[in-house]
């Protein structure tokens, strides 16, 4: 499949820069594969579009405040600092304009903590030694900013929307820290809508997939088959496995909330029961694809030429995905991480 089949032109003003004031107040495009119909709703209408007995599968990963400031001994600012993987004493990070590897640095917001570049890994990636006994996650909670994707514009060091981003670039049920990007389809769910879903007999369970920076990596190869997919760590616990097996055994729909949940589920073998499991997945879902476990999908509107829009095309069909996106643009939906959502059934 050619990568340019996933291209589309998007007016810049449709790239959402802030979330909707209320989580469930965003718009929801409803696409039915059975009759290829498109209908327009608000996200608060979702409970009425689902069926009693549907099992929603959420990703409960917690986003780390993975952007932070580093400065050189001269006071100069190191650009593009982004955490990729925290380990005790040594972090893997993205950096720009570093200058001399091995130089001593310090955190802009914690200048007494020394930082030294230990290793150059290529492609802008480095390993840094952080001289502190404070756990990485605890330190980041104090000094970090949310790792918003580059199409959401913020001031370099501080922005008046930083506190809003800490609240809204995180799901209401986030509990397992480790992601450096949000499972954005779940950002629309509030406690109110979760309670309404439960009252209607719509079930839910949780898996964990720690979304990595690779989720924003564009497909640069001419064909999707030539793209090297990034890997992400995921886990399915015994409670989720039991809920999934129950839904499958009773022929109830499994509805993936987000592409990350869909990838975790589709990484499991077909024709076998779900079992508790922790692993990594590099599954790349694109047309044509025979879905093993996921019956329906709730997702946001994604970047052109991305692995995420390829997954949507695998669910709806390429030509229908293109028609859906044309309709969304004409109807002035808001796109990407802080944008509106769609429900494909």
Fold and architecture overview:
By secondary structure, this protein is of the alpha/beta class. It folds into 2 domains: about 5-65 and about 170-345, 3-Layer(aba) Sandwich (QueA-like); about 70-145, Thrombin, subunit H. It contains 8 helices and 17 strands. It has helices at about 45-50, 135-145, 160-170, 190-200, 240-250, 260-265, 305-315, 320-330; strands at about 25-30, 35-40, 55-60, 60-65, 70, 75-85, 90-95, 105, 110-120, 125-130, 175-180, 205-210, 230-235, 255, 275-280, 295-300, 340-345. The strands form 3 sheets. The protein has a 9-stranded mixed sheet with strand order 2-1-17-16-14-3-12-13-15. Strand 1 (about 25-30) and strand 2 (about 35-40) form a beta hairpin. The radius of gyration is 21 Å and the shape is globular. The chain starts with about 25 loop residues before the first strand and ends with a strand.
- What would the principal axes of the Cα set say about the shape? globular
Helix count from the secondary structure assignment: 8
Instruction: Provide the domain count.
Output: 2
Largest sheet: 9 strands, mixed
């Amino acid at each position: 499949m050619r990568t340019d089949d996933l291209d589309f032109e998007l007016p810049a003003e449709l790239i959402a820069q802030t979330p909707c004031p209320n989580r469930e107040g965003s718009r929801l495009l409803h696409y039915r594969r059975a009759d290829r119909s498109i209908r327009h709703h608000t996200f608060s209408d979702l409970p009425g579009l689902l069926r009693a007995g549907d099992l929603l599968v959420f990703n409960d990963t917690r986003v780390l405040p993975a952007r932070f400031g580093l400065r050189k001994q001269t006071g100069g600012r190191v650009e593009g600092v982004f955490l990729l993987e925290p380990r005790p004493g040594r972090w893997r990070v993205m950096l720009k304009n570093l200058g001399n590897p091995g130089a001593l640095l310090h955190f802009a917001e914690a200048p007494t903590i020394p930082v030294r570049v230990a290793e150059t890994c290529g492609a802008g990636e480095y390993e840094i030694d952080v001289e502190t006994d404070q756990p990485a996650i605890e330190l980041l909670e104090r000094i970090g900013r949310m790792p918003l994707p580059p199409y959401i514009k913020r001031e370099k060091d501080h922005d008046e929307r930083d506190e809003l981003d800490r609240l809204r670039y995180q799901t209401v049920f986030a509990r397992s820290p480790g992601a450096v990007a949000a499972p954005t389809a779940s950002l629309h769910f509030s406690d109110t809508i979760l309670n309404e879903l439960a009252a209607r007999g719509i079930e839910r369970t949780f898996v964990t997939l720690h979304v990595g920076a690779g989720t924003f990596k564009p497909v640069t190869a001419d064909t999707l088959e030539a793209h090297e997919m990034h890997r992400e760590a995921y886990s399915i616990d015994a409670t989720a496995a039991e809920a999934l097996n129950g839904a499958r055994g009773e022929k109830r729909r499994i509805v993936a909330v987000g592409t990350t949940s869909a990838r975790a589920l589709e990484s499991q073998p077909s024709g076998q029961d779900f079992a508790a499991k922790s692993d990594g997945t590099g599954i790349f879902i694109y047309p044509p694809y025979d879905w093993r476990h996921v019956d329906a999908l709730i997702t946001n509107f994604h970047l052109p030429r991305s692995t995420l829009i390829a997954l949507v095309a695998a669910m709806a069909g390429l030509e229908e995905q293109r028609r859906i996106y044309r309709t969304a643009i004409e109807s002035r939906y808001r796109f990407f991480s802080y944008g509106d959502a769609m429900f494909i059934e």
